[in-house]
Amino acid sequence: MNTIRTKICGITRPEDALAAAELGADAIGLVFYAKSKRAVSIEQAQAVVKNLPPFVSVVALFVNENEQTIREILRQMPIDVIQFHGDEDDDFCRRFDRPYLKAVRVQSAADIQTACAKFPNARALLFDAYHPTEYGGTGQSFDWTMLHGNIGKPWILAGGLTAENVAEAVKISGAAAVDVSGGVEISGGVKSREKMAAFIQAVKAV
Q1: Most buried by CB count within 10 Å: which residue of 38, 116, 154, 184?
Q2: Mean pLDDT over residues 151-170, rounded?
C-alpha cells in the first residue's frame, strides 16, 4: 500500500499550521507572492513555523521573485523546499541550495513532457490547472488522465482538489503526492480544520 503525501498550501495562521501537522500533513506551504490572497510577510511566516513539530516540511512559494528577496527570506526562515510558480528557468531555480519544486500549468500532455526536459534538477514537478493570468490557487482542475503513465520524474498533483474529489484524482492520475489550498479553506488563507481533516482522511483511504 502506497502512502500518498499531502501538502497544505497557503497557510497564513499558526493555528492552521499546527492543525495541519496534527492531522497528518507532510508539508505546509507559505506563499511569498504579494498578489496572492494567501500571501504572508516574513514575520507572519516566522510565527507560522515557530511551533511546528519535527518532520513537517516547510515549503516557500515564489512567483517571479528576484534572487535577493528569496535569499533574504531563506536567511530569516527555516525553509526546507522552494516551490517556483512563475516563469523561472532551471538555472535560476537551482541557485538557492534547497531542493526545488517547479509548478507547471497544464493545458496538454505536451506541457508535462516539456517540463520534465526543461527542469532536470527539480526535486519534483507540481502539475496544476492552467489559467492565463493566475499562478495557481485558482480552484480549477484539469484532465487527470494526462498524468497517468511514466512521467520520468517525481510529481505532485494540484488544482481544484477537495475532500470530495481527491480520492478519484489520485486513482485516475496515479499521484504519489497531492497539494491543496482553496479546497480546505473557509476564506482566502484561512483554513478549516474540519476540511483539512476530511481531505487528509480521504487521501489516507486511497
Answers
A1: 184
A2: 94
